[in-house]
Design brief:
The protein has a single domain, classed as 3-Layer(aba) Sandwich (Carbamate kinase). It is of the alpha/beta class. The protein is about 40% helix and about 20% strand.
């Protein structure tokens, strides 16, 4: 079995059909290709974006000048807050903070939803690989960080827009499809895919495959 990280965009939390559409997407066969090819049962790990909660933190920072460390910590906590919300609205989902907890959830046939703030904090302390504390590092890069350190076979960006066809990570960042720091992380992940959950027929589409 192999782990695939699904980054669920915060804008999707207001989607009425999210409790139905997201589990259906997780059941789709993953389009492994080339060096990323894998077989066997997939273990989905959800990383939920900060959405409007993170936007509120950004506004507070603009008004109160919270400082990079405080703003980053609160923005990360917004992801864990939303992860708990997603766990509550999905059937057979469990909030996890560690690899052991995730394995237990998968063993019981549940969907593992990661409390990203707690996992990343622990990982930064042990690996000394620290995410930059700035606003152009969003949940896209956090999910890529998780995918690299877990490690996962692939990352799926579950968004509200179509995949940027024939678009590099750098070009996608310049157009606002992903955050500015994401290209520096994407190259360390075997495969990055994309899914527009607001499409009439949501499907996982391959986007970037690492050359390494």
């Amino acid at each position: 079995m192999c782990t695939v990280v699904y980054k669920v965009g915060g804008s999707l939390l207001a989607l009425p059909e999210l409790p139905r559409r997201l589990p259906a997407l997780l059941k789709q066969p993953f389009p492994f290709t080339g060096k990323s090819k894998s077989s066997g049962k997939l273990r989905p790990l959800l990383v939920v974006g900060g959405g409007s909660v993170a936007d509120t933190v950004r506004q507070w920072d603009e008004i109160r000048n919270l400082g990079d460390d405080v703003a980053h910590r609160l923005a990360m906590k917004s992801m864990s807050f939303n992860a708990e919300f997603v766990t509550a609205i999905l059937d057979e989902a469990r909030l996890v903070t560690t690899r052991i907890q995730a394995r237990d959830a998968w063993a019981e046939g549940q969907i593992a939803v990661l409390a990203a703030a707690e996992f990343v904090d622990a990982e930064e302390q042990t690996s000394h690989d620290v995410l930059p504390r700035r606003w152009d590092v969003t949940s896209d890069s956090v999910a890529a960080y998780v995918a690299f350190h877990w490690p996962a076979a692939a990352l799926v960006l579950v968004k509200s827009v179509p995949v940027p066809a024939e678009c590099t990570a750098e070009t996608a960042a310049s157009r606002g499809f992903v955050d500015a720091y994401f290209p520096q992380r994407a190259g360390h992940i075997p495969q990055v895919a994309w899914a527009n959950l607001r499409a009439d027929d949501p499907a996982i589409k391959n986007w970037i495959e690492s050359a390494s």
